[in-house]
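Title: Prediction job returns without error message
Component: structure pipeline
Severity: low
Priority: P3
Assignee: unassigned

Description:
Job completed but the reporter wants confirmation the result is attached to the right record. Sequence as submitted:
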Amino acid sequence: MKNFKKLIAVVLTVILSLSVMSVVAFASTTDSLKRTDDGTWLYMENGEHNADYTGLVKYYDTWYYVENGVLNWNYTGPTEYYGTTYYVIKGILDWDYSSLVYVDDVWHYVENGVYSNDYTGLTKYYGTWYYVEDGVLNWDYTGLTKYYDTWYYVENGELNWNYTGPTEYYGTTYYVIKGILDWDYSSLVYVDDVWHYVENGVYSNDYTGLTKYYGTWYYVEDGVLNWDYTGLTKYYDTWYYVEDSVLNWNYTGLTQYYDTWYYVEDGVLNWNKNGLYNYYGNEWCYLTNSQIDTYYTGLVNYYGTWYYVEEGFLNWDYCSLTNYYGTYYGVVNGVLDWNFSGVLRYGTTLYYVRNGVLDWNYKGKAMYCTGKTYTFRNGAAIDYDGYVADAAQALALMKYYEAKAGNTVTLVEAEGMPDDVYNGVAVTVKIRSNDGSEEYYTAITCKNFQQYTNLIGIMENEGDGYLYVIVVAGNHNEENSVVLSNDAILAYLDGMDSFALLNPISV
C-alpha cells in the first residue's frame, strides 16, 4: 500500500512539472515577435505590442534588431544588450561575423558578432591585414605584433609585406624579412651603410666574433662588422686570423694579440708550433706552443745548428758565453761556433773558449778582440780589464740611482783617463727628469780610491782590486784621455748578466 502511494505522488509531480513547462513556453512565445498582415514584425511583451522597446530580441534561434517595437530589416550597426555591444547586419545579429566595421569615423573590430574591445592583434579585411588595439584599428601603430605563433611587421596600422629591415619592440631591435620576424635568421644585414649582426632574428649588439655570410667569414665587434680589425679571434674552441675584418685562410705568420705574438698557419692559430721561426728577412723568433717565448734566453737547435736566443728573439749581434744545462758555450754572432777558440767576455770577466766550449782548465795568455793580451788561470782572465768594464759599471750605477727617481739616463760619452792619475774612466750621461728638465753628470771610476773621499758605488772583484766610483756634476773632459765609443760601452752592457750594486758608501 505504501509503495502505491509513493507511485501516485511521483505521477502527480511529473504532471505538475509538465504543466509549469507549458506555461513557461507559452510565456516565452508571448514575449517575442509577431508578424502582422502587412508583413511587419512587431515586438510583443505580455501579449501586447511594446512600441517603446529598442534592442535585440531572440526569436527561435535568431536574434533580431527591434527599433521602437518594430523589427528593422534595414539597420546595420551596433546595439547594446545587457552591457555588451553587438553588431547587427540588416536587422539580424550574425554570430559568424568577425571583421572590421566602420562606425562614427572609427574602425571597430567585431568577433563573432560582438564588439571585441579587449582584442589587440591582426585582422583581415578585404585582403588586407590591419592592426587592432583594444578593439579599434590603430592607424598610428608601427612595429611588431603577434598573430598566433608568428610575429608580423605593421606600419601605420597595416601589415607591410614588403618591409625588410629593423624594428624596435620594447627596447629590443628585431630584423624583419618581408613583413615577418624570422627567428631562425642569423647573419649580417646591411642597414644605413653599416653591417649589423643578427642572431635568431634579434640585433646582437653584445656579440663579438665570427659570422659567415655568403661563404665568407667576417669579424663582428659589438654587433657591428669592424673593417679595421686585424688580429686573432676565437670561434668556439679555435682561434682564427682576421685581416681587415675578413678571415684570411691564406695567411701564415705572426700576429699580436694583447701584447703576445702568436703563430698562425693557414688562417688558424697552430698551438703545436715550437722552435725557431723566420718571420721577416733575417729575423727569427723562438716559439713555445705557437707563442713567442719572451721569457726564454739561451740556445736553440735548428736543423743541427745552435743559435742564441735572447728574450724570444735570435740575437745575431751576441758574442759571448751562454750557459746551457751547466755548460758554457761560446756564441759568435748569434751562433754557437764549434770551431771558435779564443777569448769572449761574459759579464765583467774574460774567459777562454776552446772549440766552442769554455775551457776551465786553460792556463796561459790569449789575445782579446781589442788587441790586448790577457793572462788566464782556470779559464778566466786575472788581469785588470780596463776602461770598457769600468765605464759599463759606472753607467749601470748612474742608471740605477736615477731610475729610482723616475728619471731617464742617456749615455753621452765615455772617456778613459790616464792610468797614472785615475787608472779608470769618466762616463758622462744626460739626466732627463719628469718635468722635462735636463742636466749632465759624470761618473769617474778609480782603482786607487785613497785619493778620494765621499765615494759612492760598486765593489766588484776585478782581479787585482776593487772598483770605486765618484759622481761629479757637469761634463768632464781630460786632456790626453782615451775616448771610448758609445757602441763599445753599450755592447759591453748587452753582454753583462749581472753586477753588484751597493748602497752609497763613504770611505
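Comment from assignee: result matches the submitted record. Residues 387-494 form one domain.
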